[in-house]
Fold this protein.
Amino acid sequence: MEQKFAKWEKLRVKGAWNFVLKYGVAGWGLTTALLFSALIYFAGRSAGASFARVLLPSLVIFPLFGLAWGWAMWALNEKAYLRAKSGGK
C-alpha cells in the first residue's frame, strides 16, 4: 500500500485546493478549453468567428467543469486512501 499511495500522500499534503486548481482547473479545464477551441476553429465550425471569440466562452465553461472534476477526483482518491489506511474497512 505504501508504494501505491506514495504519490497521493505527497499531493494531499499540499491540500485539496492545490490539487483541484492544478489538476482540475488548469490541468483539465484550461487544456480542454484550448483543445476544444482549436478543434472548433480549425474544423471550420466557428461560423466565421475569430479564435478569441471561440476561446473566451471555453475559458469560462471548461475550467468550471474542471473545478468539479478536480473535487470529484480529490474525494475519490482521498476515500480510497483513507480506506486503505484503515485496513480496507
